[in-house]
Write a structure and sequence with these properties.
6-phosphogluconate dehydrogenase C-terminal fold, Prephenate dehydrogenase, Prephen_DH, PDH_N, 6-PGluconate_DH-like_C_sf, 361 residues, Rossmann fold, amino-acid biosynthesis, single chain, Alpha-Beta Plaits, globular, alpha/beta
């Protein structure tokens, strides 16, 4: 691949363009808002000038409801040798494209499983896709050359290709992406009218659950409008769990011992099923999640403090597997939870104490 056209310079489009441009591909940028294309170009994602002729690959990075029409227009114009989109829904756009009479042999639907709660070109990053799954949904009509171009794109973005059926993909993302967005937003919505004293008690748990609730509502209306059925199916199951959980909690208030025991059993059941489901979420390198030990370090809110912790861990020969930061309410300080292999935890704790860090047991 020597040339590419990226249509849509939001988070995903700009990140694709930055990755390709960084690996020597000449990237042309286009957006319905020319200012966004110019911003992406200024970031080093390519040029906002139109290509002189057909490019090797056209990457359509627009909302799902506009994917088919955009692809069809580019195909009619002969803009590229191959065409793909990066929308988060795959079945609907492909059927719409077929209904428009487009040549599906030149097209493949794809979806990089990466993102942020921020959007727009300024949120773009060349390493956004590093090590992340990138779904490809070829059909029997897909030309081999187009599939190879898509695989080359995934490789240049340092992602991991995953081949799926388009409708199976849509059911999967309803479970692992679209429904979590709605649940996060629903929990965060409870905070909107909460008492200020209650909100000041927010800890890491509520921050974890509501992080993605900061996402752009307009963007998510577009996504959910393209995949409403599968999302509704998942939410229906969650609604059943919620109804049973509410009933169990009410039973815990009963004066009847048997009802209270039944309520406790119902709560334990949903928590245990949650444990089992969480254990299936892939951890580091896609393997089953490891049980790490946490070394909690008090830090002041000063430049370079995190870097010093990581450097001291490196000097101790300890690999940091993950890290979490919990900010202290109303203080210029916080707690850094450094996650390491259990055998390395005492080594790290001793090394950090020796270097003057305050360790919380």
């Amino acid at each position: 691949m020597r040339t590419a056209l990226v249509i849509g310079t939001g988070l995903i489009g700009t990140s694709v363009a930055l990755a390709l441009a960084g690996r020597g591909v000449t990237v042309h940028l286009r957006d319905h808002d020319p200012t966004r294309a110019r911003t992406a170009a200024a970031l080093g994602a390519g040029t906002d000038e139109e290509p002189a002729g057909p490019v090797d690959l056209a990457v359509v990075a627009v909302p799902p409801t506009h994917v088919a029409a955009t692809l069809a227009a580019e195909m009619r114009a002969g803009a590229a040798r191959g065409y793909l989109d990066v929308a988060s829904v795959k079945g609907g756009p492909r059927r719409e494209l077929a209904a428009l009479g487009a040549d599906l042999s030149a097209y493949i639907g794809t979806h990089p499983m990466a993102g942020k709660e921020r959007s727009g070109p300024l949120a773009g990053s060349a390493d956004l896709f590093d090590g992340r799954p990138w779904v490809l949904t070829p059909t029997r009509d897909t030309d081999t050359e187009v599939l190879n171009l898509a695989l080359e794109l995934v490789a240049l973005c340092r992602a991991v290709p995953v081949v799926m059926d388009a409708d199976a993909h849509d059911r999967a993302v309803a479970l692992v992406s679209h429904t979590p967005q709605l649940i996060s937003s629903m929990v965060a919505a409870r905070l909107e009218t909460a008492d200020e004293t209650d909100v000041r008690l927010c800890g890491q748990g509520i921050r974890d659950v509501t992080r993605i609730a900061a996402s752009d509502p307009a963007m998510w209306v577009e996504i959910l409008s393209a995949n409403p059925g599968p999302v509704a199916d998942v939410l229906s199951g969650i609604a059943a769990d919620l109804a049973e959980t509410v009933e169990s909690l009410r039973a815990l208030q009963s004066a009847d011992d048997e009802k209270r025991q039944g309520g406790a059993a119902g709560i334990e059941d949903v928590l245990r099923r949650g444990n089992a489901g969480r254990e299936r979420v892939p951890g580091k390198h896609g393997a089953a999640p490891a049980a790490y030990e946490i070394v909690a370090v008090h830090v002041s809110d000063q430049p370079g403090e995190l870097a010093r912790i990581f450097a001291d861990a490196g000097r101790a020969g300890v690999n940091v597997e993950d890290v979490r930061i919990e900010h202290a309410t109303g203080q210029q300080a916080g707690l850094v939870q450094v996650m390491v292999d259990p055998a390395a935890a005492p080594v790290l704790a001793a090394a950090l104490r020796e270097r003057g860090w305050s360790i919380r047991q």
